[in-house]
Write a structure and sequence with these properties.
mainly alpha, Sugar_P_trans_dom, transmembrane helix
């Protein structure tokens, strides 16, 4: 009996020992299994998040692409008409001051919107100029070369050479942004260039200085569009930050330039500042200048710099038609007013003669 109890107790202790050993061996295995389950669950969650990010980073809707392109073309067209009225009808002496007013309007609107938390862009720090470079330099080069080339070439030749902005934009997008275009798009771009040459074939006057300036203008315009697309990355400045800081960095040098050339003095001495209609159109030009800058960035954001360049070329044709309609309507108005005055004077003279004869 005692031997049986001893053997049973020994067997129980042995079984307990073996059970504990099995539990100790199963412990690490269970922990490893739980770790593998946690890792697989985490991997699935990470894959889900990555899938969500990929879905959110998909291509923009076609409606946004089309509307942003139409918005850009419409803003540019309206701005040209308003500026034409200011510079010709009222004979405002300085287009540079109009540009300064547009930059000031951009800074004010974006800053007030940021204060009211309508939009967001990073606060200024020492890294902002580095992040923005070389956009301010490209803007200055684009402005100077554009003014110089316009005065040295005829309008048809200027229109032809400005079309080279489109293939340069395509090339710079491939080099800087690493974007690849299909053969159909490349053929379409060169078809635009060929059509422009055919349209201006009767006015191929050679002017080396004008050619140099307009090709520099093409390079600056294409580079400005491509780098603007690059700087609009939310990790960098975003589209509002690009607009705000570019205007901030450019308004002071442009103001100094206008003061040195005498444009600022001529603008301050202009005699129409008390004219309410002139003030309304001047403020409208400043607001449309902000809309043009914003619509350019928006079009490049939803589409591409190449699309923005093509829309600019189409807008240039519409602009010429709009200016022609403006000049035609204004000329017709002046002629009608002149004829009305002549008829009124003739009728008044005839009335005086009739009264004299009756007397």
């Amino acid at each position: 009996m005692a031997g049986g109890r001893g053997r049973s107790e020994a067997g129980g202790r042995g079984g307990a020992g073996r059970g504990g050993a099995e539990r100790r061996q199963a412990g690490p295995v269970g922990a490893a299994g739980r770790a593998r389950l946690d890792m697989s669950a985490g991997g699935q969650a990470g894959a889900g998040v990555a899938g969500g990010d990929a879905a959110s980073a998909g291509p923009p809707p076609r409606g946004a692409q089309l509307l942003s392109a139409l918005f850009y073309g419409t803003c540019s067209f309206l701005l040209v008409l308003v500026n034409k009225a200011l510079l010709t009808t009222y004979r405002f002496p300085s287009p540079v001051i109009l540009g300064i007013g547009q930059m000031a309007a951009t800074i004010m609107i974006l800053y007030v919107s940021k204060l009211n938390k309508i939009i967001h862009f990073p606060d200024f720090d020492k890294k902002i100029p580095v992040k923005l470079f070389p956009l301010p330099l490209l803007y200055v080069g684009n402005h100077i070369s554009g003014l110089s080339s316009t005065s040295k070439l005829s309008l048809p030749m200027f229109t032809v050479l400005r079309k080279f902005t489109i293939p340069l934009t395509l090339l710079l997008e491939t080099i800087i942004l690493g974007k690849q275009y299909s053969v159909n798009i490349i053929v379409s771009v060169f078809a635009i260039i060929l059509g422009a040459f055919i349209a201006a074939g009767s006015d191929l006057a050679f002017n080396l200085e004008g050619y140099i300036f307009v090709f520099l203008n093409d390079i600056f315009t294409a580079a400005n569009g491509v780098y603007t697309k690059q700087k609009m990355d939310p990790k960098e400045l975003g589209k509002y930050g690009v607009l705000f800081y570019n205007a901030c960095f450019m308004i002071v040098p442009t103001l100094v330039l206008s003061a040195s050339t005498g444009d600022l003095r001529q603008a301050t001495e202009f005699n129409q500042w008390k004219n309410v209609l002139f003030l309304i159109q001047f403020l409208l030009s400043c607001f449309l200048g902000f809309l043009l800058m914003y619509s350019t960035v928006l079009c490049s954001h939803y589409n591409s710099p190449l699309t923005t360049a093509v829309v600019g070329a189409i807008k240039g044709r519409s602009k010429n038609g709009g200016l022609w309609c403006f000049q035609l309507c204004w000329g017709s108005l002046l002629r009608s007013s002149h004829l009305l005055i002549q008829k009124t004077e003739r009728g008044f003279v005839n009335l005086q003669k009739r009264d004299k004869y009756d007397f």
